[in-house]
Amino acid sequence: MRASAAGPGLSFRHALPLETIAVEGLPEHAVPAFEAAFETVCTTVGYFREEPAETWRVEGVREQGADDEELAGALALAALVSGIEAPPLLRADTEAEGWLARTVTAFPEQPVGRRFLVRPTHLPDPTTYGRHVLRLDAGLAFGSGEHASTQGCLRALEAVAHRRPRRILDLGSGSGILALAAIGLLKRRVIATDIEPWSVRICAENARLNAVPHLMRAILADGWRNPDVRAPGPYDLVFANILARPLCAMAKHLAANLAPAGTAILAGLLGTQARMVLAAHRRRGLVLERRIDVGAWTTLVLRRR
User: Fold this and answer.
1) C-alpha torsion sign, points 235, 242, 134, 42
2) According to the model, what pLDDT value does residue 7 have?
3) What beta strand segments (E) does the chain contain?
4) C-alpha–C-alpha distance, residues 35 and 299, integer Å
5) Grouped pLDDT means (10 residues each) for the chain, 305 residues
6) Residue 240's pLDDT is what?
7) What is the DSSP annotation of 177-237?
8) Cα–Cα distance measured from residue 119 to residue 104, given in angstroms and rounded to the nearest whole number
9) CB within 10 Å: which end of the chain, N or C, has fewer?
10) What is the pLDDT at residue 105?
């Protein structure tokens, strides 16, 4: 389950009418795409397995009618990427009274792995020993620590940090949590890119919040197509926490821009999609070093020969 204290389209100043929207009957491989689509307009997003059909339901909460046109486009794209017919959108009124306060208190700070602590901004920020504190709020952009794919990436970073990579890229950075983690753990400069302007803006804001704006370069870029992404390479470490099919499509470019013996941490894929993603990268000369499963989600740690 993923949620937000102040995500897209939600104001703390006014308790506007809320609604829950949902799609049902999704095959497992379509869950990441529809989850991403809901995140464009929703303040909280969840996904649930439906028994006995073994299909999935994705639902979210937003202000009533907010960004209908944007949502329609995002859902159409999710259906296209997933190769399925677009399911009907279900709507239901949601009680707003007290929802904002409950949302904030629902997100305490949380340790991830052995070395990280994600601390929302509504909590005090005392000195914490033994862990790198990442200050950011849930749901402002993808990546706030509570999602299994983010946790898998942070655990993978712990496992490869001893290599001391110098050139680091966070491809599809969302909130910038992985870039921030790499900066905190490795004390290196990181390039963070995203295709969404608001994600790039939030990524830069989080760098300032964590007092590392001088170590993060947040840029708007459509993956490897942008020369500003390719030019600083080849990279010693690349994070790509996106979706399974885009990961497969970018395998050639990742391999071409990864330094010899470089490491790629790939996530945003369900366990059932791991074989497909791994096969695409093996064809480009990358080898599997580690697989990390958190719930239904998988993170792959690959190295270039």
Assistant:
1) positive
2) 38
3) 2-3, 18-26, 44-50, 55-63, 90-94, 110-112, 116-119, 132-135, 168-171, 190-194, 216-220, 235-241, 258-270, 286-294, 297-304
4) 17
5) 36 60 90 88 75 81 85 93 92 65 62 89 80 76 66 95 97 92 95 87 91 95 92 96 90 97 94 94 97 92 93
6) 96
7) HHHHHHHHHH---EEEEESSHHHHHHHHHHHHHTT-GGGEEEEE--GGGSHHHHTT-SEEE
8) 12
9) C
10) 56
Q: Which of 256, 242, 241 is nearest to 286 (CA)?
A: 256
pTM of the model: 0.71
* Alpha-carbon radius of gyration of the chain: 19
3-state helix, strand, coil in the chain (%, to 5): 35, 30, 35
Q: 4-20: b or e for each residue (b if 16 or more CB lie within 10 Å)?
A: bbbbbbbeeeeeeebbb
Main-chain phi, psi angles of 234, to 5 degrees: -70, 150
Ramachandran region of residue 53, left (φ > 0), alpha (ψ -120 to 50) or beta?
alpha
Whole-angstrom distance, CA of residue 205 vs CA of residue 236 = 25
Residue with tokens 């399911």: 87
Question: At which residue do the structure tokens 């208190």 appear?
Answer: 105
